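Q: Convert this sequence to structure tokens.
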Amino acid sequence: MFKGFIGDFKTFLQRGNVIDLAVAFVIGTAFSAIVTSLVGNIIMPPIGLLLDKVDFSNLYVILKEGSTAGPYLTLAAAKKAGAVTLNYGLFIISLISFFIIALVIFSIVRVINKLYPKPVAPASTKSCPYCYSSIPLAATRCPSCTSQLES
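A:
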């Protein structure tokens, strides 16, 4: 029984789609790290400057004070004091990262779809050899000229 399990598992791992999924996961994780860095280090600082020097990573609401009473100057200070916080600034950064990743994936899929030829619909009609009107493929007689058609 155990030998059959190992054989089935080996067959499962050797399928192309499992390997493709593993490669896609690794590339996606690396890409996500790049986009997170892009958003946190390149995009958000200028936006913060435009919005009166706002640091999005330090936007939070204190739900419960920590062992040391506030006010806390940074999110890290609030966490260190044990305060319970609602980190809406980090959520905004995550939303921007998500939209950038979604935009890039959409663009990639769109380009890939343009590389493949569009499928041609199979013919559902044929031309009558006598009057050249369009008739269904399965027709044995032309509805326009009533000619008997060869099968």
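The helical segments are 2-13, 16-50, 75-80, 88-115.
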